[in-house]
Write a structure and sequence with these properties.
Belongs to the complex I subunit 1 family. By secondary structure, the protein is an all-alpha fold. About 65% of the residues lie in helices and about 0% in strands.
């Protein structure tokens, strides 16, 4: 019989491998989506349909010459990408990827760890991630890198306020900070009596959270920290080899985790309509729910890519105005509207 510790170790390994695979093949998917939107082919040389392109890119990063500028702070220069990669991987441990599995009479949840204040943990880890960018930009001793790092820190501070306020409205109604509990509250009942997903009750909060997620992940139209036309390459201008690869990988991992958090908080997570009317056993419902969860995550990853190749980059003043003058007031209004609506219609 499988033990609890063994199951958790297997789950950690699976989530780690899946996260790296998703991040690697998100680079391939991004180039294919860009090619489709721009009416061209995209990667098609490495393997059938270019399916081995991520492996070729990874091998290229490994074999590239590793350059550390003489005028840089060597320790911090190496530490920056390590922090970015580590914090990106840490955020996924609280995501409920599915329901419960029964193995040998024991019940196991498809979640690495469960905390009563799981949302706070995710916010804390995401906030630490900006230190990897800031340290890398400062340690490079390059003015373009430093400007990119300053932009990243100011951008994340600005948009985390609106993101936090959007979550306050959600927490006020759900009454919990636990990701698994929020996901479970969106589960369907039986006989057509099922709860709506939180996006139905909190459409404005969901929109604000998604916009802030783009800014937190440094994705277009909010990719000012690595703006090539102004800052050469931004905070990772001086980086090469796998240290540059860590920064790029961390961005795609953050995009994957952000998609999972959006799916969990607002789109039912692993729940799907009429899931309890299928007449299947719990294990099969859990497996189907996990597939549904990853389908939702895949949709939001595509959405991230679609926006990148559709909307042009904002100017920095437009970025700050959107964050402080539009999103934060809207998020505050959303808190009052949500709480007032709950008190009136409960």
């Amino acid at each position: 019989m499988i033990t609890f510790l063994t199951f958790k170790i297997i789950l950690v390994a699976l989530v780690f491998v899946i996260t790296l695979l998703v991040a690697a093949y998100s680079t391939y998917a991004e180039r294919k989506v860009a090619a489709f939107l721009q009416d061209r082919i995209g990667p098609n040389r490495a393997g059938p349909f270019g399916i081995l392109q991520p492996l070729a890119d990874g091998l290229k990063f490994i074999m590239k010459e590793e350059i550390i500028p003489v005028v840089s702070n060597k320790f911090l220069f190496i530490l920056g990408p390590c922090i970015a990669m580590m914090t990106a991987l840490m955020a996924g441990v609280l995501i409920p990827w599915g329901g419960t599995l029964t193995i040998g009479g024991e019940t196991y949840a498809l979640q690495i760890a469960e905390l009563d204040n799981g949302i706070l943990y995710v916010f804390a880890v995401v906030s630490i991630g900006v230190y990897g960018i800031m340290i890398g930009g400062w340690a490079s001793n390059n003015k373009f890198s430093l400007l990119g790092a300053i932009r990243a820190s100011a951008q994340m501070i600005s948009y985390e306020i609106a993101m936090g306020l959007s979550i306050i409205a959600l927490v006020a109604i759900t009454g919990t900070l636990s990701l698994s509990e929020i996901s479970a509250q969106q589960a369907g009942g039986t006989g057509g009596d099922w709860n709506f997903w939180n996006v139905v009750y909190h459409p404005l909060g969901c929109l604000i959270f998604i916009i802030c997620a783009f800014a937190e992940c440094n994705r277009t139209p909010f990719d000012l920290p690595e703006c090539e036309t102004e800052l050469v390459g931004g905070y990772h201008t001086e980086y090469s080899s796998m240290k540059l690869g860590f920064y790029l990988f961390a961005e795609y991992i953050n995009m994957f985790i952000s998609s999972a958090v959006i799916s969990t908080l607002y789109f039912g997570g692993y729940n799907f309509p009429f899931m309890n009317d299928l007449g299947l056993d719990q294990n099969m419902i859990t497996i189907i729910g996990t597939v549904v969860m990853f389908a939702k995550v895949a949709f939001f990853i595509f959405f991230f890519m679609w926006i990148r190749w559709t909307i042009p980059r904002f100017r920095y003043d437009q970025l700050m105005n959107l964050g402080w003058k539009i999103l934060i007031p809207l998020a505050v209004a959303n808190v009052f509207i949500t709480v007032a609506s709950y008190l009136i219609f409960k």
